[in-house]
Each structure stands twice: as C-alpha cells, then as structure tokens.
Design a protein that fits this description.
Two copies of one chain form a homodimer. Chain A has two helices and four strands, in the order βαβββα. By secondary structure, chain A is of the alpha+beta class. In chain A, strands 2-1-3-4 form a four-stranded mixed sheet, with helices on one face. The mean pLDDT of chain A is about 95. At the A-B interface, β2 of A face β2 of B.
Chain lengths: ~120, ~120
C-alpha cells in the first residue's frame, strides 16, 4: 500500500545569481506549492495526496517543474494560476493536464520548443 | 516516457530544536544522499536514476526516510551505510530491500514497532 494515492513534488530550487542553469524559485519559496497545498486541503485530500517540496529535479530549463508520482507525469513552466487546474483535473479527476506536460523530447534536454 | 527509470527522494528536512516531530537531518545535509548519489554515478546510472533532495515526506517518526518512485517503496530509519544495499539491490537489481521498508501499518502513523 503506498502512503499516498498521489505524491506531487514541486521544485523549490534556487540557484545563485548568474548560475549557468535557471532556477525554479527565486528564494526557495513557491506560491505554486502553497496554492496546490491549499486546494488539496480544501478538496479533503490531505493524507491521500501530498504536495511536497523538492530540491532540483534536473529539468531546470523547463521550470518551474512539477512531477506527479506514481504516474510519472511531468509539468513544466507551471505558474501559481495553474494550480487549480492540476488539482481539479489531475489530482481529483485523474486526467493529466496535457497543455502543461513537458513533451517527452524535452525531458533531460536543455531545449524545449513546446514550452512558453 | 518517464524522465527517470527510478526517482529517489531523500528527506532532508531539519526542524527547529524542540519541535514536536523529529527531523530527518540535523542541518539539511545528508550523508545518505551523498552516498547514494555517488554510488548511482559509479554504477553508470546517472540520467536514468535520480537521487533527489526532498522536503518533509510526512513520515517523520520513521526517518530518515527515503521513497523510490514509480515503485512507491518507502524506506525508514535509513543510515548512510544502507546506501550501498539500496543502490545495488533495488536501483540496479530491481529488488526492494525488505529489511528497510516501512511496514504498511506504520505509514502515516506516528508509531512503528518494526523500526529500530
């Protein structure tokens, strides 16, 4: 039995200014994380869905990045205003949000023409 | 296609002294993480297996805690000297290390008679 139905990792990584790869947050704080956490709680999913802080997920060029396990669905360029859709569609209804997914060919790659 | 064959999250959470729940690390640094990372690299698994830092995984009483996705296998009370076995057995050979698993009845519970 897994501890959580879904375990969501939100990248909080903040690099020093001038670092060669971009950062998912400016200062280790994430409104996206807070927003998702509050919506999961409001939906009564606490204890079944966990919104977790994570260190660098190594997809920096497509950040801010979120990965949902055990589905292994990756979202890129995620904004706080996308939280409602991810929670309602993916975490409640079980339908990944296609428009936010990092394309397969972008994973582990520094370029990604599909991301804004 | 998932980005990683296996994605391992090592709790790095450090609470203030006197906090009601225990911490997985004393100062946000984890020799366990470093040890696993080095062994994954030495095994030539970089890019396929990622050893990730994470915030609190909410299983504090069984920490230091590690979770391996997409398997959703949870390990508790993990020491740096356990890294070699987790990497060789689980991440290379695909056999979870039973002696380190958090028992199902301990997940999301503050007590766990099976853990040392």
């Amino acid at each position: 039995m897994p501890a959580f139905q879904r375990h969501v990792f939100v990248c909080h990584n903040a690099r020093a200014e001038g670092a060669p790869r971009p950062s998912c947050t400016r200062d280790g704080k994430s409104d996206l994380h807070t927003e998702m956490q509050q919506r999961v709680k409001a939906a009564g999913l606490s204890g079944r869905v966990r919104i977790n802080k994570s260190g660098c997920l190594d997809q920096c060029e497509h950040g801010p990045v979120v990965v949902v396990y055990p589905d292994a669905v990756w979202y890129g360029n995620v904004k706080p205003e996308d939280a409602a859709e991810i929670v309602a569609e993916h975490l409640i209804a079980g339908r990944p949000v296609e428009r936010l997914r990092v394309a397969d060919e972008c994973m582990n790659s520094k370029s990604c023409p599909h991301q804004g």
